[in-house]
C-alpha cells in the first residue's frame, strides 16, 4: 500500500469530470447573462466577427485554459481559440495567452466568465509555484488540501498541479485522515486507528494527525502509513522527524499548519516528505488578465 496520497486525476471518469465542468460553466454563464447580454446585443450587429487577445497584465503561471475556452464554445461553437501557451506555462506581463476569433457577441458575452475561471485558476498556479520554488532542493513536496471553493475542487486541484505541486486526497472517500476530532470521539489515537485497520477493506492510505511528540508515539505504535505533524513549531518538527526516521519501515512525514512562504523552506529543511498548504486554494490572489478586441 502506497504512503503517497495523490489524486492526480479526478476520481470520477474523464467524461464525468468534463460533464461536471460544463455544468459549472453553464451555471456561471446563467448567473452573468441572465435574461440576456443586452449591451452586446444592442451595440454589436449579429454577423460581426472579431479578433481578440487574452493578455497577461502581470507575471504568473497560467492555468484554467480549458474551462475558459469552453465558456466561449458554450455560447457559440463558431468561436475559435489559438492558444499561445499551455497550462503550467510562466508568462510575463504583456504576453498574449490566447487569440480568439469569432462572433463578437459571443466573445464579449463570455469575456467575464472566461476570465473569472482563468484568473482564479492561474492565481492558484502562480501562488503554488512560489511554494514549490521555495522548497526546491529539499526532499519536501508541496500538497494542497480540501480547502477549496465549493464545486471548483477538481479545477483548483488541476491548477495546483499546473503550478508544480501535488494533490492531497480528492475528498473524504480516497484516503483516511484521522484528525483531532475523530481522535477525541474515538477515545484516542490507538482506538481510532484500530477501528480503521479493522474496517479498511478498501485498503485506503491511512494518515494520523498528531500535535505533540506523545501523540506521535501513539501513531507510530498504531502502524500508519503517514503521520501529519499539525501546527508544530520548528524545533518539535525536527525532533519528530528524527524519531520517525528511526522506525523500520518509517512512515512518511507530512507537516501542516501556518505554512507561509516565509516559513515553508525552514520546515522543508527539517526533513519532512510533504508539506500541505491550505493557502494554495483558499488565499491565492487572482492573476491579472484582460481581454482586448484588436480587430472588428
Total number of helices: 11
Give the helix proportion (percent range).
Answer: 40-55%
The proportion of residues in beta strands is 15-25%
General shape: elongated
Describe the structure.
The chain is of the alpha/beta class and 296 residues long. The chain is 43% helix and 19% strand. The protein contains eleven helices and twelve strands. The chain has helices spanning 14-33, 38-43, 65-75, 104-134, 153-162, 180-186, 189-199, 213-222, 234-245, 264-269, 279-282; strands at residues 49-56, 60-61, 80-83, 90-91, 96-103, 141-143, 176-178, 206-210, 226-230, 252-256, 274-276, 289-295. A six-stranded parallel sheet has the order 6-11-10-9-8-7. It has a four-stranded antiparallel sheet with strand order 3-5-1-12, with helices on one face. β10 (252-256), α10 and β11 (274-276) form a beta-alpha-beta unit. α1 (14-33) crosses α3 and α4 (104-134) crosses α5. The chain is elongated.
Attribute tags:
296 residues; alpha/beta; six-stranded parallel beta sheet; four-stranded antiparallel beta sheet; 11 helices; elongated
Task: Provide a concise account of the structure shown.
With 296 residues, the chain is of the alpha/beta class. Helices cover 43% and strands 19% of the residues. The radius of gyration is 23 Å and the shape is elongated.
Amino acid at each position: 500500500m502506497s504512503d503517497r496520497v495523490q489524486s492526480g486525476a479526478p476520481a470520477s471518469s474523464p467524461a464525468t469530470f468534463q460533464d461536471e465542468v460544463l455544468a459549472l460553466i453553464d451555471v456561471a454563464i446563467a448567473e452573468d447573462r441572465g435574461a440576456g447580454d443586452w449591451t452586446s446585443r444592442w451595440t454589436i450587429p449579429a454577423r460581426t466577427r472579431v479578433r481578440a487577445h487574452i493578455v497577461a497584465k502581470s507575471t504568473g503561471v497560467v492555468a484554467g485554459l480549458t474551462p475558459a475556452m469552453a465558456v466561449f464554445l458554450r455560447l457559440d461553437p463558431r468561436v475559435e481559440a489559438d492558444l499561445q501557451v499551455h497550462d503550467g506555462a510562466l508568462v510575463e506581463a504583456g504576453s498574449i495567452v490566447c487569440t480568439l476569433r469569432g462572433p463578437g457577441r459571443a466573445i464579449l458575452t463570455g469575456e467575464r466568465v472566461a476570465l473569472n475561471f482563468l484568473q482564479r485558476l492561474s492565481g492558484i498556479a502562480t501562488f503554488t509555484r512560489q511554494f514549490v520554488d521555495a522548497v526546491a532542493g529539499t526532499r519536501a513536496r508541496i500538497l494542497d488540501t480540501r480547502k477549496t471553493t465549493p464545486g471548483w475542487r477538481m479545477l483548483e486541484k488541476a491548477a495546483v498541479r499546473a503550478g508544480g505541486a501535488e494533490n492531497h486526497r480528492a475528498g473524504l472517500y480516497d484516503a483516511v485522515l484521522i484528525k483531532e476530532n475523530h481522535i477525541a470521539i474515538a477515545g484516542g489515537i490507538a482506538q481510532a486507528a484500530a477501528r480503521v485497520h479493522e474496517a479498511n477493506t478498501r485498503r485506503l492510505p491511512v494518515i494520523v494527525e498528531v500535535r505533540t511528540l506523545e501523540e506521535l508515539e501513539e501513531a507510530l505504535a498504531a502502524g500508519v502509513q503517514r503521520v501529519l505533524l499539525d501546527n508544530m513549531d520548528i524545533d518539535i518538527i525536527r525532533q519528530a522527524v528524527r524519531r520517525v526516521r528511526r522506525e523500520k519501515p518509517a512512515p512518511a512525514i507530512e507537516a501542516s499548519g501556518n505554512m507561509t512562504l516565509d516559513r515553508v523552506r525552514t520546515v522543508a529543511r527539517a526533513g519532512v516528505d510533504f508539506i500541505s498548504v491550505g493557502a494554495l486554494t483558499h488565499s491565492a490572489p487572482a492573476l491579472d488578465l484582460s481581454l482586448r478586441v484588436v480587430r472588428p
